[in-house]
């Protein structure tokens, strides 16, 4: 029995690796559901409201949710509550100006903002991330 078990495990491992490669191929060759970026040059302060101009292309009509994720100095990390997304599908880059509040507890130094979420499509959830946008928090 043990003589048959080892080749069976090896065959299963090879098949699993093959399917993983197929999945990776589709992830890498399928267009992303959303792409975009924003930049900010001027310094910011903790608790400040700013407007970020995002350049976004959304390639799906699927509904979804997103949240802001903040990473900063001294291990600072904060994820805001998820909210539904309402951006329409676009064929070209569209500019959006979103008001954003810098977290009150953001430490002085570099602070990165990423937007992370997923679209709930008929063929499954499509996870995505925009950014990061690097901000400089001053005292």
Overall description:
The chain is of the alpha+beta class. The chain has 2 domains: 1-30; 32-137, Immunoglobulins (Immunoglobulin-like). The chain is built from 1 helix and 8 strands. The strands form 2 sheets. Strands 3, 4, 5, 7 and 8 form a 5-stranded antiparallel beta sheet that branches. The longest helix is centred in the N-terminal third of the chain and has 28 residues, at 2-29.
Descriptive labels:
single chain, alpha+beta, Immunoglobulin-like, three-stranded antiparallel sheet, elongated
Please provide a brief summary of the model.
This protein is an alpha+beta fold and 139 residues long. It folds into two domains: 1-30; 32-137, Immunoglobulins (Immunoglobulin-like), CATH 2.60.40. It contains one helix and eight strands.
């Amino acid at each position: 029995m043990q003589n048959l078990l080892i080749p069976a495990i090896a065959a299963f491992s090879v098949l699993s690796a093959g399917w993983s490669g197929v999945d990776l191929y589709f992830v890498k060759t399928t267009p992303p559901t959303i792409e975009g970026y924003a930049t900010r040059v001027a310094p910011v302060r903790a608790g400040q409201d700013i407007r970020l101009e995002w350049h976004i292309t959304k390639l799906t009509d699927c509904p979804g949710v997103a949240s802001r994720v903040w990473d900063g100095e001294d291990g600072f990390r904060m994820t805001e509550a998820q909210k539904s997304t309402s951006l329409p599908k676009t064929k070209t880059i569209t500019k959006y100006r979103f008001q954003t509040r810098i977290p009150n507890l953001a430490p002085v130094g570099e602070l990165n903002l990423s937007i992370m979420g997923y679209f709930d499509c008929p063929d499954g959830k499509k996870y995505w991330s925009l950014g990061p946008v690097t901000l400089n928090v001053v005292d």
